[in-house]
Every structure is written in structure tokens, then in C-alpha cells.
Amino acid sequence: MTTIAQNSNLKHKVHRRLKKSWRFIGWLILCILGLVALRHVLFYYTDLTLPLHSVYNVKSTFSVSEQQITRKLRKSETPFFIKGVHLDPVSGDGKMDQYLQLLAYAGDLNANTVVVDDLMEPAFYEAFQSYNSVSGQHLYLLQGIRLSDETYAGMQDAYDGGLLSLLVQRGKLAIDAVHGARRTAGYYYKTDVSADTLGYLVGQDWDSDLVLYTDYLYNDIAKQTNGQFVRAYDTAGAFDKLLAGVFDRLFAYETRKYGEQRLIGLANGQRTDPLFHDTSWSPGLNENLAHVNAEVLSAQGLVESGIFAAYHVDTAIVQTLSYDPTYNSAVDPQGQANPYYAYLAALKQYHVNLPVVLSSVSVSSARGVSGIDAVTQINRGGLNESEQASALLLCCQSAVDAGISGVCIESLVDNPLLRAWNSDGINDYDGTWLNAQDSEQSLGLIALESGAAESACIVDGDDSEWNDVPVVQSGDGFSLQLLSDEKYLNLLIKIPSYDMERDVVYIPFDITPESGTKVFETQNLTFDRDADFVLTINGSRRARLYVQEYYDRLLAYRGLDVFNKLSLSDPPMSDSGIFNTVRQLALRYGTADPAAEAFDSLADYCIGTDCIEVRIPWALLNFRNPAQGLIEGDLFTPDHKSISIDAIYVSMIVSKDNTLKTLSSQPYSLEKWTEGEFHLRKKAAYEAIADWFS
């Protein structure tokens, strides 16, 4: 019995021990799973720096050596010249396919780098990896890290405004996205493109007031940045010391979390460059006193990759350089007067430790102009596509001659969301329409054209595409047809036995119901309906668009600058018979057919057999958003608002054989749309840059 009892007790003890062991093992497994889950949450859902890798054994494909960017290939390092092009986010369905198409264009351009200004959606990184895996044209990525304009709004002091933490937070998110290891509330970045990432570009064109005020406030405060990876020299300004802190934290984050490093560039613009300029051309004193200086950032021994200085130097700067005696008389190595080259050379000469990259250069082929260059005539807009190509080549060659380490073209495709300073607040941009008058919307190497597959109308004097377009008005053999698209209001004017030397055509437009006039005093014309605009065509020699002075945007918005008149305090009569010339370039004669040998992308009208084709940019007719039928309201009220219309009225008057023939005003119903339809067309600049990049 004792033996049986002892055996029973022994069994119970063994059972209890096993139970405890299994319980321990179970808890151990749960703890391990919990740690794995915690690690997963921390790794993919946060930007906490997990010290997973040593700071002393870091992988880096690209590095900085003797003011050059170098690439490691096997056991050797070779200089790497960045041949980049900017890609913008896409919209609509099939984003993966859209990005693949854009990347294919970039590859065919012979670019070696694509630049994105900010964090993209996951579809881009998936397309980027897919393209590089199957394409013979390998592309690297230069990932931008920047904050939105809204974030900067109201930020007077960079330290008090939390600029350091905001940029670091954004930078960590971009690093995780590049490594395919981040989930956010809206996206899951799971595609690792880090092996094909050249580096990160921190910042944008800085606000000169923010920089200057920050440096002033903290001038006597020791805001030293003695990071392990990046330090700022003692002579650095407070704003630069803050940026040194950003760089230090981003280098540390990628090193400790992934055991890798990429180049980090400091993005900057002319307004806050480290140079001193002749203040006679500077738009504001702050823009000559505020400096952001990559040269004061010192990479420490733990940095295996490096730092470079990046500058956004587009052709808008040339209008100021051309008035600065430091640059306006400078000559490039080709013997050409070239202030653009002189400025780039000055930047390169200033940076004695860092490579300098031209991170953004652009030339506009828009009809509208937002800057004039008095030396090279590379105006900001007003250049046709052939002239755009030549100007871009000049800028690129100037960068090489100045010793710059890379050139990035902005951008691959025209962007309908961009706006120039002289369009800001005047037009409503939502991506549904194109403004030929805005210089910033036509910076691309590839044109964004109206129509899903082809444009509804090509101004070339051939009226064959008008066969199915309804006639708005007709009589005595004359007729007028109108056709809307995402960029222009197109007209076909038919005149029998048209005499280019003698016949004059007048097309009055009634756009707004709030003003207008029935007389055009200087032309001795009367209309059957109040007119706001009058288009006049006198053969191929002269064409003008006139606007009744009460509906003249230029008079209302910039009356003091242009007309020396305080318009709001002394407005014209709402039914004034005075018309002003619409000053955004005279109408230009030529063929707008890209397939024609004489193609002129800025052509406004063309004369064919007894017909005239005309295209008028919507903005010239005071449309704020043609997709919604929004136009300017009463311009001379302090709080004037846009109004919506459903139709415009047009008539036609022809001076022929010394007599006036008139067709009465008729309505043209506006076609409205919620989504614009566009297609892509390579410009001359695309082929020119492809040859230069090769």
C-alpha cells in the first residue's frame, strides 16, 4: 500500500511539474509572440529608433568624395553625375500603370534619376521597383522630404514652430517608405526600393522671413548641434543649426534601424542662398540677408554616405540676375553672355567641401509670361517649344561648365495644379483644366494636351474636324462655330472669298451679365448686345483681343502698377465704351499642328481656305474655372466674387468691300465637366534633353 501511495504521490508531483513547465512554456511563447508583435508595431507603425544595427558597419552605395558624388560598383568608386527628372503624383484610376508609363518616359529620356518632391503613394514605389526589375534603363530615386505650405503658414520662429521635429518626423516616414516598412492611417508601404535610392532631399525654397527672424531671435543662444553624425560649425546661424539637427537625426535613424545610409541633400533656393547680392535688384531686403548654408554642416566619421548642397535655380531667377552687375556682364566658356552660368559658378565656388546639385531647373513653354530676362531672353513663359528646348540645353550646359554635380529637370510632364505669382488668387485650379496663360503649368518635357486621345481642334487652317460641330450663327455665307476643350475656346470663322489683306473680322463676346457695353468707341462699332471682349483679326498681320475697361483684370488687380491708377477708388463706368488691349501677348499667327514642319506651339490663329481657326485661352476671357463655368464677377467691388454662367453670347461683324456685314448675337452653351481628359505629347525639349543625357 505504501508503495502504491508513494507511486501516486510521485505521479502527482510529476504532473504538477509538467503542468508548471507547460504553463511556463506557454507564457514564454506568449511573451515571445508579444515581443514579436511589439517589434512589428514599433517597426512598421512608428518612427521610434530601434537600435537594430551597429553604427560602425554601415552600407552605402553613394558617397561624397572631393566635392563629387561617387557610386560604389563592386570594389571601385566612380563619379556619378545626376541626370534627373521630376515626377509629379498622378490622379484617377490605374495609378500603377500611369507611373509605369512615366517611368518608361524617364528611362527613354536617358535619365538616371527620378526626383519626387515629397512622399508618394505606395503605387509609385511599387511601379518604381517593377520598372527597375524588368527595364534595361535603371533609375535611381531622389526622395524629397518637405512640409506643406500650410504647415509653414504662421510659423514666424522655426524653433518655437517645431520645424525640427516636423521635418524629422516627415523624414523618418520617407525613410521607412523607401525601405518598404511603414503603415500609416491611409497607406501600407511594403515595397523596398532602398537599394535603388540615391538619397534624400530635405527642404524646399525657404521663407526668407522665417530664416532671418529665427537667426535674429537665437543669435546669442548656444543652439549648438553636436550630433554623432552631423554637427554645425560655431559660425552657423540658428536656422542652419536647426537643420544640422534634422540631418543628424535622419542619418542616425536610417543607420540604426536599417544599417544603411543614403546621401542627404539640403534643398535651397536663390532667395536664401549663402551668397551676397547687389540689393538694387532684390525684391526685399530680407531676401538678401537671410541665408541657408549647407557648407556649415559637417558630416562626422559615422557618415559613410555624405551631404550635398542642392539648389532650385529655374529661369525665374534670370530676371533678377540680369540686373545684378555681378552676373549680367558675365560670359560663359562658349563666349555667350550668360548670367545663369555665372550664378551657378558662384555657388560652386562658394561650396568648398560639398558637391552642388542643380536639383530643379525648368523653362516654360506657356503662352503667359511671369518673368523677363534682359540678357539671354530666357523669359519665364512666352517661349514656344523649340525655344524652350534651346533654353533648357543652355541651362544644362551652364551647370556642367560651372562644375555642378547633377542636373534635375522640372518636370517630366506639364502640371495643371501649379500656379505662377501673377496667377495666384485669380484662377481656380483643381486639375480639371489647363491654363495656357500660367507660366508654371507648361514646364514639362511632355505636354499635357486636352482630349483623351487627341485634341478636339488643331489650329492649322484645316476645317475638316469641324464637320460635326453645330453652327452658332450664320448668314450671307458667313458662319461661326465654337468648340470647348480643357484648355481653349476654339472658333471657326467662315468667310466666303476671304481677302487676307483687306477683310477685318470682329467677334464680340458677352461673358458676364454684370457689365458690358454696346459701343466700341475707337473702332466706331456698335453691338446688339453688351460686349465684354472683342476679337479683331486683320489677316495674318494683326490680331488683337480687347477687353472693356470695367472687365479688365489687369486694371482691377494691378491698376497702380500698369495704369498708374487706383482702380478701386476710381473705377471706370460699368458701361464704358473704352476697350483696353488684353496685354498678355498679342495673338500670334501660325500653325499649331505638332506634325507640321512650321509647328509653333504658341500659335493662336491660322487662316485656311475661306476660314479662320482661332483658339483663345480660357483665362484671357476672365474664366476662373471653365470646367465649372466660373468667371470673374464685378471686379471693382472690394469683395468681388466669381459667378457661374451657363452660356456666353457671340456675334460677328465683317468689314468686307468697305461695308459692314453683321450677324446678331447668339448663345453658345458652355460644356461643363467634372474630370478633365488629357493625353501626353513629347515636346522638342524631350528629344533635346534625351540627346544631352545620353
Q: What's the alpha carbon Rg, rounded to whole Å?
A: 31 Å
The secondary structure category is alpha+beta
Distance between the termini: 98 Å
Low-confidence stretches: none
Q: Strands of the largest sheet, in order across it?
A: 4-5-6-9-11-13-14-15
**Number of H- or I-type helical stretches:** 13
Percentage of β-strand residues: 15-25%
User: Tell me, what's the shape?
Assistant: elongated
| Structure summary, number of beta strands | 33
Specify the helix fraction band.
Answer: 25-40%
Give the overall average pLDDT: 90
Largest β sheet strand count, sense and barrel closure:
8 strands, parallel, barrel
Chain-wise SSE layout:
Blueprint lengths: L1 H44 L16 E4 L2 E6 L2 E4 L2 E5 L8 H14 L4 E4 L5 H13 L5 E6 L3 H4 L10 H16 L3 E2 L4 E2 L7 E6 L5 H10 L12 E3 L5 H21 L4 E7 L16 H4 L7 E3 L7 E6 L5 H4 L17 H12 L5 E6 L23 H17 L4 E4 L36 E5 L20 E5 L2 E7 L3 E7 L9 E7 L6 E4 L4 E7 L1 E6 L3 E7 L4 H11 L15 E3 L23 E4 L2 E7 L5 E3 L4 E3 L9 E3 L2 E10 L2 E11 L8 E5 L1 H10 L1
Parallel strand pairs: 4-5, 4-15, 5-6, 6-9, 9-11, 11-13, 13-14, 14-15
Antiparallel strand pairs: 1-2, 2-3, 7-8, 10-12, 16-33, 17-18, 18-19, 19-27, 20-23, 20-31, 21-22, 23-24, 24-25, 26-27, 28-29, 29-30, 31-32
Helix pairs in contact: 2-3, 5-7, 10-11, 11-13
